[in-house]
Amino acid sequence: MKREKPKKWCKCTCSIRKLVTLLISLVTLNLVFSVVYQTSAVRHHIWLAYLFPTTQNWDYVFSEGDVWKYSQKKIGLTGQVQYVVDKLVADNNNNEQHDAPFSVLDVSCNLGMMLKTVEAEMTAHNIDVNLYGLDISQRMVEETEKTCKTCKSALFDLSKLSDVIEQGGSVGVDFPSTFSYVIVSDVLYYLSFGNSPPLLFKLCSFCQQWGSVKRDERRLGQALAKLATKEVVFSNHQKNPFAESIMKSMGANYDRTRKVYTIKGTG
Fold it and tell me: Quick one: residue 112, left, alpha or beta (phi over 0 = left, psi -120 to 50 = alpha)?
């Protein structure tokens, strides 16, 4: 008994179906990206920085304006700024200033509005304080010095802080080796850990638990602590689960009243 040969039209039909399915998928994907691009204004560029967090890409992100729509009033109400201001006032009242002025470092200074708020509050209380800012974007370094006239800022990639501190380096030219308080605001989820880009951790929660990632998180916490003589003060990072897990790895304590995380300085 002869076997019937498969009909060619069946193979052709299957191939056509696959092709049609692929085309529909591509068209749908293109529509989705188009909608995201058009509705997200400048924020769509943030994905570039998530994938390749370089100075060039962050400058590109900021090239179209203020991505996060900051305002001086909004910044003034943030828990980490109020926490640092209150601590400085208390330290001054307790005569803890000694010979040198207090100092504050913002490791992701952005437009410099947090430092500007600290500057205004310290002026109102007649307290001497030196203010410093770091940012991976050269644009933001320049904006910080425009916003806060007494501030000194420098270009710096926070992802490299552990290596710099462990090698005895400085975070900026003519910057002191330690600061009274170090502010870390909404930046942890933009950093690379375990030689992996931040986008990976946004897409893969399992990857956040890799040993190399946790090791780098602890190293960063230790490096930040060495920069502060009093405290490292973190924003709650908008309650982002990954950022919260990073701060937990660092051994940070959560202040429920102020809604900030803190690490005692070891500098």
Answer: left
The token duo for 100 is 């040198």
Which alpha helices (H) appear in 160-210, and where do they start and end? 161-166, 198-203
Question: 233 pairs with which residues across the strands?
Answer: 183, 262
Mean pLDDT of 104-132: 95
The closest of 173, 155, 150, 169 to 103, measured between CA atoms, is: 150
Q: How far apart are CA 74 and CA 78, in angstroms?
A: 7
CA distance 231 to 225: 7
- DSSP state for residue 71 in the 8-state scheme: -
- CA 247 to CA 263: how far, in whole Å? 9
Q: 238: how many CB neighbours lie within 10 A of its CB?
A: 9
* Residue of higher predicted confidence among 52 and 45: 52
Span 157-213, pLDDT tens digits: 999 999 999 999 999 999 999 999 999 999 999 999 999 999 999 889 999 999 999
User: Is this structure's pTM higher than 0.85?
Assistant: no
Q: b/e for 168-185, b at 16 or more Cβ within 10 A? A: eeebbeebbebbbbbbbb
**Tokens 């039909």 found at:** 13
Tokens of 75: 């910044």
- Specify the 3-state DSSP secondary structure of 185: coil
pLDDT score at 20? 62
Q: Are strands 253-255 and 260-264 parallel, antiparallel or unpaired?
A: antiparallel
